[in-house]
Amino acid sequence: MRRRQNLAIRAITVVVVLGALLLSGVAAGAAIDGPCRGTVTIDGIVYSEANDSASNPIVIPDEEGLIAFWEGSTNEPITDHTGEIGVVVGPTTINFADWGGDNAALKTDSNGSYAIDDARDVLPISVVGLYKVSGFHRGEGGSCDGSVMVLLEGNPLTTPVGAGAAAGTILAGLGVLSAGRRRI
Amino acid sequence: MTGRPFMGAFAGLLLGLFVAIDLQQFGVRPLDSLGLFGFPIIGMILGGALGMWAPFGKR
Description:
The complex is a heterodimer of chains A (184) and B (59). Chain A is of the alpha+beta class. Helices cover 27% and strands 41% of the residues of chain A. In chain A, the strands form two sheets. In chain A, strands 1, 4, 6, 7, 9 and 10 form a six-stranded mixed sheet that branches. Chain A has a four-stranded antiparallel sheet with strand order 3-2-5-8. The longest helix of chain A is centred in the first third of the chain and has 23 residues, at 2-24. In chain B, 71% of the residues lie in helices and 0% in strands. The termini of chain B are close together.
């Protein structure tokens, strides 16, 4: 009996330390590998590939009518190129955009703008929170891979996912506490 | 006289999964592989250990 309790206390100590490490261990990624650079301006703030950590994300405010102005460049022209960009969820990436072309004009830079409301309209439910967005641009003349961190501002408790997860946390927590009640 | 280690492990697994989603929703950390698998595993061990230890209730 005493042995089981000591084992359990040791296990709890180990998982508390592991949990603390998990909470603190969101290190910055590699930003962009390759000859590509880019910036995006949202609500007057300029973001770049340096915004690749949870403590320094690209912030998208919970406001209507926001426009994202983007610019991208490569050191040399990349021809016959393809590219993809998506949200990292666990071990997989859910792609939400792709592109391709021959770049016959041998351009090394591009720019444009995007209405953030258009992206929100495509989603079936409202979402908030921190997302790792990863992508690549490859072709003849160069290859780039990179990721940034994006924070969609808003109250999680007003979204289906956030409210469901909060309720699930309470119920599962009660289940854990209930399992710790002594049976006679 | 013990608690319910298997129930604790299952509830802990769910608790870890929901905590990982909460942290993502509240902008603390993204739902990457480490968070998606790490927190449920930690929750499972924590719940199972609490079930073995059974610190709550009358002696």
